[in-house]
Amino acid sequence: MLPHQLELLSPARDADIGIEAVNHGADAVYIGGPSFGARTSADNSVKEITRLAKHAHRFGSRIFTTMNTILRDDELEPARKLAWQLYDAGVDALIIQDMGLLEIDLPPIQLHASTQTDIRTPEKARFLQDVGLSQIVLARELTLQQIADIRAATDPERCTLEFFIHGALCVAYSGQCFISHAHTGRSANRGDCSQACRLPYEVKDSQGRIVAHDKHVLSMKDNNQSENLRALIDAGARSFKIEGRYKDMAYVKNITAHYRVLFDQILEERPELARASSGECTFHFQPDPDQNFNREFTDYFVQGRQQDIGAFDTPKNPGRPIGYVTQVGPNFVELETDDPATVIHNGDGLCYLDLQKELTGLQINRAESTGKPGLWRVFPKDAMDSFKDLRKGVQVNRNRDMDWVRGLEKKSAERRICAWLKLDQTPEGLSLTATDEDGHSATATLPCKLEPANDPAQADAKLRDNLARLGETIFQPIDVALNLSGPRFVPTSLLNPLRREAIEALEAARAAAWTRLPRAKPVDPPVAYPEDTLTYLANVFNHKAHDFYAKHGVKVIAAAYESHEEAGEVSLMITKHCVRFSLSLCPKQAKGVTGVQGTVKAEPMQLINGNQKLTLRFDCKPCEMHVVGKMRPSVLKAGQTSPLKFYRTRPGSTIPL
To answer: Closest by alpha carbon to 68, among 95, 41, 44, 88?
Structure first.
């Protein structure tokens, strides 16, 4: 990707969703392959990815396939074979976490550094650029200044900065969460997270006092950077990523379209920038992020630390307020809408907060207007006695609008590439040249005898109208030029195949001009890694990854947490989110505290969910929180998932790590 191009990068759970992402304006799509994709239940066959790649390349959009799990030694060869299969399928880049892949025989395919590589510093970013990663996914927790600092330390000609702009937020720094493996044996680094962060916890302070009860204190609101796109561009980001490889078709259509509209507005304002693919989109619906599942929105840390980033009351979708309860009947609920124009539909999803502030869902089986403006009677799918604390005056939200959902089940967008047509008269008859917005051109010829038009005044208009009928092709006509010796009559039966041949040739010319993204060459001699010691936090899970870091100057390399060498208490999660700060318990927030950052220490706290206990420790200097615990005996008893024996001491030393 060129430094002046902006890339809208959309997720795809499967090829059909990926195709619609392209149709709704994605410049690139990322999708999981048959394995190693860091998302269980989001795998796709190579054949399906081939189908997606062919469609994307018609518009100059790119396909990135995730191979971003950490790999055991016995998985390196299957991963190598899969990489070659994906290369042959037309995939444009692989998104990776495991540096062991750089030490095996990969195809000449571009490599991108996954968010799982935990890129938070200019030094780490520069290192990954210098070892051959062409695009790096920055940590979601970075501020605009930190992104700018990373851009200043890297080369925009060699390395593109990618940043998440929408979707669910992992509370931990990506690649720095091991709670799932510690408690269940399911590794987040291998795509099987149990999502302990979405559970409710009791929070106790260091004296054992309860400061929060049944709160989802590790659950974040959803990311939404709609208001920060211009600032992110100015900071140096060029690829803008939507989270959601588990999400459904409606989500991908809607969110892709939403950001396509926003980026097109920016491109209109800033002609020095360009989109990374071809074509313009027309939408048959109004994109609206609030219509999809969300936990409410935050822009997280982009503009600095914010108080209200957590979805502490519920990890569910609270929806939008639409009205309040006026009456509860034996099998119905009567609602008055805030806006009399609001229409409630059969199948809509409603919800409300009970007295304990737990979100309770109510799916409508049937909705009837009472005849009075804004007054509706809805008949829930479930029995009325199942709705706790539902009573007169309760505010009701709608978190599923079936009318809107049904609209996205239909064809909801068209993407067309601009084309110019020119009809020339030749000694043999006619030639039609089609040229697209990227400069590709193709010509079709028609040997025929030209006759003067019976109606000279209408002849040229009829020719232009006929030639402009590009129908269901990927092109839209911008101009039709006629270069004839005079008004001519050409039968439709001759013009149609001429136009069809020219357009097919133009698309073939586009396909022939498609080129792979270049594979970056690592700096030689190998650059040094920013540190000479790696703990389990580096996720080194195979000997090739060990060799990679050793080659780059690392002296001591511990095995990944999944190797079960860390049996005691360790940091199971490192996060920029601070429970103390979010609960207004940070010492630096206290009245009268004027100390600078790092001079005030916070006492540990405890999280409790059933018999599960975790300790919160606060590192106030970098303003980070560590969730500390140890591996459950049942997980340890299950044995190591990969038998590794790396150096636990510096060579020639008897001092353990």
So the answer is: 95
